[in-house]
Specification:
By secondary structure, this protein is α+β, with helices and mostly antiparallel strands. It has helices at residues 2-50, 53-63, 69-79, 86-111, 119-122, 148-163, 172-195, 430-433; strands at residues 126-128, 145-147, 230-235, 241-246, 250-255, 263-268, 274-279, 285-290, 296-300, 305-309, 323-325, 331-335, 340-345, 351-356, 361-366, 372-377, 381-386, 391-397, 404-409, 415-420, 425-429, 443-445, 454-457, 463-467, 475-479, 485-487, 496-498, 504-506. The strands form 8 sheets. It has a 4-stranded antiparallel sheet with strand order 3-4-5-6. The radius of gyration is 44 Å and the shape is elongated. The termini are far apart.
Length: 509
């Protein structure tokens, strides 16, 4: 019995020690697994530190972000700069050697002399100075020939002497530096605009209503007054230059500064009293017609040459006097006798087509887009032509016109002004002119007592100037800026437009 009891006690002890051993084994296995995981994690971190940024991003995208920000930063600090491998060092050496070879080849190419030289390129061409247009540039009788470089320098000296120095628009270096200065000042102004507050609302650019303030300036041609009647005074399209032409057979150019107005140049057309002269739209040419000639002249200001146009093939006219240029610079319209209108190419001065109005055409005008032509006949009828097809689109009668004298189209293509021999200038809207045969004028200006020989709009279409050559100081200014007041007269009723009357001003001496 005692033995049995001992055995039973031993079995009980064995049963108690077995769970303790199992727990120890599990703890050891867990520690080994944690150590293996830590080693695997360290190997993974080390591998990630060696790969490039693109591979690392791709691996993290596929397998997940296994690094936190703190661990990544710590790893980069501990690893230090990545050593350069032998392959990478070899590639860098090859690239540097290639760039050195390229630079050396470029230096050799620059030092090489040309394979062939044309002696004619270096030879300077001489210019005959005995020509009638170049005699004024000769300093002595011995200078019968000059090279092109010397002639160019002589022209520059003459131009600077006439202008009193190099003007700002002709000095390219100053223009470039001024542009840089303006760009810098604009950026400074923008910065200053954001730093402060205030009233940034400026006054309107439109002309004030009521009284126009004017000041008298010195005559534009005070350095060379014309010996005869002036027929043309026109500003240059882009430069601060004014042109005068008249019956003294000369065309003169002046720089307008409001003080001296120095003369730039004068050209003389022998036995050719000028009837009309006009700048081309690009400002590089001057076209002049005579009083009793079937030819006209073209003065090329860039080349300094005068080109006579003796005869235009297809134009059978005894005299060529009045003409108009299209705003886009493509066409020239010659107004002939017996109602013929000859459309010429501005580039070649050749005839494109001929149009015919009933009676005699006294004046014509292009629309601002150069797509239409308004022709005013002596009988008081206005014909509207399509430039592309050269066909008549419409015809209307100028109200109360006894004899048509002049016509003008506003710059915004909104108004048409017709002046007659009675001194009345009728103002129409272009929409009405294209639809009705006998349109009613918006306003009839009756302030002239002699024939209205000139009508023109200012660039903003705010003022219409009407003038007469038959009387001294017969110039009137009319304000053409209408105010439209809209009144609601009901849900289904149209909107009524109330227009204010024109306010007239007389230019006093």
């Amino acid at each position: 019995m005692k033995v049995a009891k001992k055995v039973s006690k031993g079995t009980k002890a064995g049963k108690m020690t077995k769970p303790k051993r199992t727990a120890k084994r599990l703890l050891v296995v867990a520690n080994q697994a944690a150590a293996a995981e830590a080693a695997r994690r360290a190997r993974h971190l080390k591998a990630l530190s060696c790969v490039s940024g693109a591979e690392r991003e791709l691996e993290e995208l596929v397998f997940g972000d296994s690094l936190t920000g703190e661990e990544d930063e710590l790893l980069r600090r501990l690893a230090g700069p990545r050593p350069v491998t032998a392959a990478e060092e070899k590639n860098l050496q090859e690239e540097s050697s290639d760039s050195g070879v390229e630079n050396e080849a470029k230096r050799d190419l620059l030092l090489k002399s040309p394979a062939w030289v044309d002696e004619d390129d270096e030879a300077e061409e001489n210019v005959d100075m005995t020509h009638k247009y170049r005699k004024v540039l000769m300093k002595s009788d011995a200078e019968t020939m000059l090279t092109k470089k010397k002639l160019k320098k002589r022209l520059e000296e003459q131009f600077q002497q006439a202008m009193g120095g190099v003007p700002a628009w002709a000095d390219l270096e100053n223009r470039k530096s001024s542009k840089r200065t303006l760009s810098d000042s604009d950026s400074d102004e923008d910065d200053d605009l954001l730093r402060r507050t205030g009233n940034f609302i400026t006054s309107s650019e439109s002309l004030p209503r009521g009284i126009l303030k004017m000041s008298t300036c010195p005559p534009a041609n005070q350095e060379r007054f014309a010996n005869g009647k002036l027929v043309t005074v026109q500003f240059h399209p882009s430069a601060q230059v004014v042109m005068t032409a008249g019956h003294d057979r000369s065309v003169s150019l002046f720089q307008v500064d409001g003080i001296r107005n120095p003369k730039i140049q004068s050209i003389y057309l022998e036995s050719f009293p000028i009837y009309k002269a006009h700048f081309s739209m690009d400002g590089e040419q001057v076209i002049a017609t005579g009083t009793h000639h079937s030819m006209f002249f073209v003065y090329d200001m860039m080349a300094g040459s005068i080109i006579p146009i003796p005869k235009v093939r297809g134009v059978e006219e005894k005299f060529l006097r009045n003409f108009e240029l299209s705003p886009d610079g493509s066409f020239m319209l010659l107004i002939g006798n017996s109602g013929y209108l000859h459309l010429l190419s501005m580039k070649t001065k050749e005839l494109i087509s001929t149009m015919k109005v009933n009676g005699r055409c006294t004046a014509s005008a292009f629309t601002p887009d150069s797509s239409k032509i308004y022709s005013y006949s002596k009988e008081g009828e206005v014909f509207i032509w399509d430039v592309r097809s050269r066909k008549s689109l419409h015809k209307f009668e100028d109200e109360g016109s006894l004899e048509g004298k002049c016509i003008a189209v506003s710059k915004n293509n909104q108004y048409v002004a017709c002046g007659s021999s009675s001194g009345v200038v009728n103002l129409y809207t272009t929409d009405v002119c294209l639809k009705e045969n006998r349109p009613k004028p918006v306003k009839a200006i009756m302030n002239l007592v002699t024939s209205a020989t000139c009508v023109t709009f200012n660039p903003t279409t705010e003022i219409l100037a009407v003038a007469s050559r038959d009387a001294d100081e017969a110039v009137k200014l009319a304000e053409t800026l209408f105010i439209f007041l809209k009144e609601d007269t009901g849900e289904n009723e149209p909107v009524t437009e109330v227009k204010t009357a024109l306010e007239l001003f007389t230019v006093l001496p």
